[in-house]
Amino acid sequence: MPVSPAAPSQSREPASFEIKSAQLPLVALLIKTGQWAQLVRELQQQFGPAGESPDFFDHDALVLDFSQLPADTPPPDWKPFLTELRACRLVAVAVRGASPEWLESAKTLGLVEAPADTPRARTKVHATETVEVVKEVVHEVVREVPGPATMVVDKPLRSGQKIYARGADLVVLAMVNQGAEVVADGNIHVYAPLRGKAMAGARGNTNARIFSLCLEPELISIAGVYRTSENKLAPDVQGKAAQVRLSNDGQDKLIIEPLKV
């Protein structure tokens, strides 16, 4: 008798992969000079193995932003340049603001094109519209988004010590001495003299701030915009309660102002 063909199996093998969209934290290096040797030297002095902050990055994914360079700037020698970045624990994965020729040469090394940076919104809206938007955002935060993490340090930091609040705010309840370093992806609060280095918004958070009851820093930085002690503070903030923030006009300028306590 004839044999009927076998019925197809109702079970299917599970898929070996799944593709989903992902939003990953990236660090952007905004390059402002075409003097590549100088750029590498300054990066090494700050973030290299023998630099001031050798552990500042942890093999972070990096976007190389060339948008501030003149169009006739000669390109870097890509392979040595990327090797120097890796020595600073930075892994270049993308470029933006590059010419088509630069982009093609970068692609041969596995780099991809990143979308153009979006400037901070400066559009004015009516007060009634602003109130409505704020209400909506607050509602979403309360309902779905957990509050930011906070790291608290209650002991003085001596020269050579470094604290990094990754993905969090940092609260220091004791003195940050000269030679010590406090870093946070969020805000930094020092309820004591701040005499070392303080870097808030370490991964590009331009809304981060630094607060101190006695501001006497060696260096202060918000999202990579920094100021050293060589540039003296104004008398109304030097050694007094003050806050540090970025200007809201898109100029990436540090604003240092008295803190009323």
Task: Provide a brief overview of the structure.
The chain contains 4 helices and 15 strands.
SSE pattern: EHEHEHEHEEEEEEEEEEE
From the spread of the alpha carbons, the general shape counts as: globular
N/C terminus separation: 97 Å
User: How are the strands of the largest sheet arranged?
Assistant: 5-7-9-11-14-15
* Fold-level CATH name of the largest domain: Pectate Lyase C-like
What is the CATH class designation of the largest domain? Mainly Beta
Backbone CA Rg: 24 Å
How many individual domains? Answer: 2
**Strand tally:** 15
Which CATH architecture of the largest domain? 3 Solenoid
pLDDT < 50 stretches: 119-147
Q: How many separate helices?
A: 4
Mean pLDDT: 81
Helix content: 10-25%
The profile of the biggest β sheet is: 6 strands, mixed
Beta strand %: 25-35%
Structural class: alpha/beta
This entry's quaternary arrangement is single chain
SSE blueprint:
Layout: E1 27-30, H1 36-47, E2 60-65, H2 78-87, E3 90-96, H3 100-107, E4 112-113, H4 127-144, E5 149-153, E6 162-165, E7 168-172, E8 181-184, E9 188-194, E10 197-200, E11 210-215, E12 219-222, E13 225-228, E14 242-246, E15 254-258
Describe this structure in words.
Cell division inhibitor that blocks the formation of polar Z ring septums. Rapidly oscillates between the poles of the cell to destabilize FtsZ filaments that have formed before they mature into polar Z rings. Prevents FtsZ polymerization. It comes from Rhodoferax saidenbachensis. One of its GO terms (biological process) is regulation of cell division. Pfam families: MinC_C, MinC_N. With about 260 residues, the protein is α/β, with parallel strands linked by helices. The longest helix is centred in the middle third of the chain and has 18 residues, at about 125-145. The radius of gyration is 24 Å and the shape is globular. The chain has two domains: about 25-115, Alpha-Beta Plaits, CATH 3.30.70; about 150-260, Pectate Lyase C-like. The chain has helices at about 35-45, 80-85, 100-105, 125-145, and strands spanning about 25-30, 60-65, 90-95, 110-115, 150-155, 160-165, 170, 180-185, 190-195, 195-200, 210-215, 220, 225-230, 240-245, 255-260. The strands form three sheets. It has a six-stranded mixed β-sheet, with no helix packed on it.
